[in-house]
Amino acid sequence: MHFLPDLATAPDTLASGVRSQFPVLAQRIHGAALAYLDNAATTQVPLPVLAAMRNFEVHDRANIHRGVHALSQRATDAFEQARSALKRFVGAGAGHELVFTSGTTEALNLVAHGLSAAAAGSAFLQPGDEIIVSGLEHHANLVPWQQAVRRSGAALRVLLPDAQGRLHPEDLVRLLTPRTRVFALTACANATGERPPFEALLALAAQAGALTVLDAAQAMAHAVPNLSALACDFMAFSGHKMHGPMGTGALVGRLAALERLAPLRYGGDMVDWVSYTDAGFAALPSRLEGGTPHVAGAVGMAAAAAFIDAVGRSGIDAHVAALRAHAAAGLAAIDDITVLSPWAAESAIVSFVARGVHPHDIGTLLDEQGIAVRTGHHCAQPLLDHLGLGPTTRASFALYNTHDEVERLVAGVARALEVLQ
Ligand code: PLP
């Protein structure tokens, strides 16, 4: 039986075309075909990305920037070409720069720390200043700001969502003051799937004179923001959420904004000169990239961006949106299930709660059927507390997922509820 006949028979042409590039998907879990629906946590890596990383490690591996020998120059070229490719991928222009990090978490820490710590001169954030963070954020875009407030004496304000988890521009207008120095926001809430009107919110904050920070962790595998079209000073993302390697990521932003950041890591490769008592720092991006970076990881991230472009961004966006709509409608049709942000058409995440049933039990029963979802607070405890929800079950989609997998998810949840209620 199909839960939504029109959506259940929607074409999976895109998914079937790319699935062979992801060997990890072709396995059975507890006797059933794996349905990997945990892409908001980590996406899978296609063969061309693995090949690019292997090629670097087999042929070009050497430390970068410091060597005159051929291998070091090839490694440096590979690293800098990866930087340029990723800048193009996110629409960065001549006034932007990209700094490699270990992920979104490090990128956001670099911003929050960099604005509240003094490197040369005084810190950007001063006592009495205000930072506004949206109430939809992953802990990675909240906890670093809590620490920045402690370091600087600035105050933290939260742009709370309404009871349905939506952010409203008029609420931001009420919070903005002449002392607002920073506004930080997600492009998609990982716990609920809510896609806030980030373009308008960032523009309002920028007009008020604040530096703007976009956590784009959930917007790199599909619906990729175009940085040049946004009033955005800093944008953070992770390689492993865009079919690239784990432990990689980037902070991309306006040069003038990046110039304001005190480095997070001091040491080699980020200095211009050093004496026993002092040091002068290198120009961007090196100044913010102290130590040996994950060069193969940068190569892998660029290969992942190339893979996404080769498959086609608009096709991926349409496919993922159709999977999400199918899942949201199918789950909402089950008694006692509430789907969060059912209207979030551009999201790849469907998060839901079931009356009287713990998400962990649903997740365990789904796993027994080979269906991988995530359960819990999704590192966004304040948001779920604010919505009065507690933990949720979350399915999240990527280009290789199929409508058949969505049908299995919906049937699996219905069966789980029969067993558990
Ligand atoms: N921000 C959002 C919205 C996320 O979903 C995540 C991870 O789930 C992060 C930040 C942290 O990303 P990472 O663990 O790759 O640093």
Brief rundown of the structure:
The chain is of the alpha/beta class. It is built from 14 helices and 17 strands. The chain has a 7-stranded mixed β-sheet with strand order 4-10-9-8-7-5-6, sandwiched between helices.
Uncertain spans: none
Structural class: alpha/beta
| Biggest sheet character | 7 strands, mixed
Named once each, the bound ligands are: pyridoxal-5'-phosphate
What is the overall pLDDT average? 96
CATH architecture of the largest domain: 3-Layer(aba) Sandwich
Superfamily (CATH H level) name of the largest domain? Type I PLP-dependent aspartate aminotransferase-like (Major domain)
Extended strand count: 17
What gross morphology would you assign?
globular
**Overall number of structural domains:** 2
Radius of gyration: 22 Å
CATH-derived topology of the largest domain: Aspartate Aminotransferase, domain 2
What is the distance, rounded to the nearest whole angstrom, between the alpha carbons of the first and last residues? 22 Å
